[in-house]
Amino acid sequence: MRNIARLKMGYYPLPESEGTKLRALLSFSERASVIDPCVGQGTALHLVTGNADVRCYGVELDAERARLATSRGIETTQGNVFDAVAKSESFSLLYLNPPYDSEIGSVANNRMERLFLDHTYRWLVPEGILVLIIPFERLHECVGLLSSHFGRLAVLRMTDEESVRFRQIAVLGVRRNVRGTVLEDNKRILQSISPYGSFHALPELTPNSCAPYAVPPSGETSLSYRGLPYDVLEDLLPQSGAWRQTIPFLMPREDVATGRPITPLHGGHVGLLCTAGLLNGVFGNGDERHIARWRSVKHVTTFVEEDGETQIVHHRERWTNELRLVYADGRTLKLTETPAKPEGEADAERTSEARAA
Amino acid sequence: MQNAHLRLGLLEYQRATEKISTRIRVRVDRYVGEDRKAHLLSVFGNDSDIGAITAAVHEKATFTLTLPDGRSKEVSLGENLSCYKGSINLADRKHPVRHLVAASQELHANGGVGRTILLRYQREEAWATLVSFLGLPGEPTWADHVLGVIEDEDRVKELDGIGCSPVLISATTEEILEWIGDGLRSQTLTFREKNGPIAWPRYSLGQLLRSIPTNNIPESTEHSAD
């Protein structure tokens, strides 16, 4: 998918004129449940079912569009359609205008048109009606599913300017278990249309392109969502205990002791506070005015022990304190128990706060 | 925020033996990486998925990471990594969502050997972090001068990120001390008037993680030296 299409999340709504033509090809007699798995703002579903007595259901990935669809009377589930579950054979009409894209996977990169159809066609009741809007070039990927699960197939060319730009076709069919010679006939007809046929040779979608498809009645149903609510989780994850444990190496830590002690500190107290980093700050007067900063440093001493022909390498770790000073006149000083390292040698390993604790 | 799926990455682990083939995919809410090396990985999913990913991480496995823009790359956390686990309870679910944060050895010793990784780059925050991790004597008001020198020296490198805009600052304690010394000698930097402890601005990880990823590195430092 192009970047511009990604930004729109593959949202290319059905032109209004084409929706009106599709409505003319459908006849509703009794109350029915209808679904659009890529409902968007619900405009197309309302066009296709205009003035019919229907219960509308939809799935939409985009939160704002899902909210709009809900406000228009469509029972909308916000999320990924592949995590949405409906009872088999519960909808009378499936209006499907999927994103024209490929899945991103390391194993397979199937077309979304086929994946969406595969996931949702089972939701149709026997004799339920499919209205599938796809680009002409993608029909051949859906041939297997269409020919074995749908009868009375009609493939019609859409003529709106936007539809022509995307070479959109409407495939209408009736949900049936197709077997034997009928299945072979279906396959042969669809394969002759795509990929070898011509888009412009297809019959045009008009209100009289074919005899109307009768949408059967169906009862009330529901969609359930088994996916994770990413929007909610994104807000909650920063509170996870796992993040709290990462603070020592992601966030600065500043331990400052303030206030006056009850009794004067003796030398031991001062030493402990210094090495704990609690007496960092500005000290001294005149030329000796400086900022002091303490830190703990791990030192590793490596020595090799010879045992006959065997060499045993020992790494001895110990912790020590280091004081860095910077004077007001620009002098800097490093006070440590070990002598200064030769130039070019790596800095001592910093102690992570978690480990130092 | 809405439409979180647009900001999340996808981590895929695949392993095939003679008899068993395993393929696990979990969502990534935060990632910090440098080429093929992952420094920080935050993923969530159900018990079994997160359990399997944890085991794979400890086995130094290589994962396929898909970034929100659709690009994919192979990443690994390397040796001696650390794993931290948490869980999130959701009102309408019986089982909590499991959360795993894995950190590379280098990130766990952040600031060591003169390499400091930050989840986002803002001068005041970056300076406070460098002071804390490198053990530098300094004042909060010196942030602009020191980070200005660091930027001029091209020591700030953008890293790959999901849910954050991480950077790597390459500067040792000695180098920064030298720059501070120069600043004090030229009187660009000054000491405050009163002696006593220095109060540093406080930042919480929650604030950092909830912030919208932005990068404030001046354009001139985004390009490496010729």
Distance linking N and C termini of chain A: 51 Å
The number of helical segments of chain B is 6
How many helical stretches of chain A? 13
Question: Radius of gyration of chain B, rounded?
Answer: 20 Å
Class per helix and strand makeup of chain B: alpha+beta
Query: How far apart lie the N and C ends of chain B?
Result: 41 Å
Percent in strands of chain B: 25-35%
Oligomer: heterodimer
Mean pLDDT of chain A: 87
Q: If you had to describe this structure to a student in words, what would you say it looks like?
A:
The complex is a heterodimer of chains A (357) and B (226). By secondary structure, chain A is α/β, with parallel strands linked by helices. Chain A has helices at 3-7, 16-24, 43-48, 63-71, 112-120, 139-149, 161-165, 180-193, 230-236, 241-244, 247-250, 267-275, 353-356; strands at 26-28, 32-36, 54-60, 75-78, 84-86, 91-96, 124-135, 150-157, 168-175, 213-215, 223-225, 281-283, 290-307, 310-327, 332-336, 349-350. Chain A has 13 helices and 16 strands. In chain A, α6 (139-149) packs antiparallel against α8 (180-193). The model of chain A is unreliable at 346-350 and 353-357 (pLDDT under 50). With 226 residues, chain B is an alpha+beta fold. Chain B has helices at 47-58, 105-108, 123-134, 143-152, 173-185, 205-210; strands at 9-16, 21-34, 37-45, 63-66, 72-75, 82-88, 97-103, 115-118, 156-158, 160-162, 167-170. In chain B, strands 1, 2, 3, 4, 5, 6, 7 and 10 form an eight-stranded antiparallel sheet that branches. A three-stranded antiparallel sheet of chain B has the order 8-11-9, covered by helices on one side. Residues 220-226 of chain B have low confidence and may be disordered. The chains are: A alpha/beta (357), B alpha+beta (226). Chains A and B meet through α9, α10, α11, β12 and β13 of A and β1, β2, β3, β6 and β7 of B.
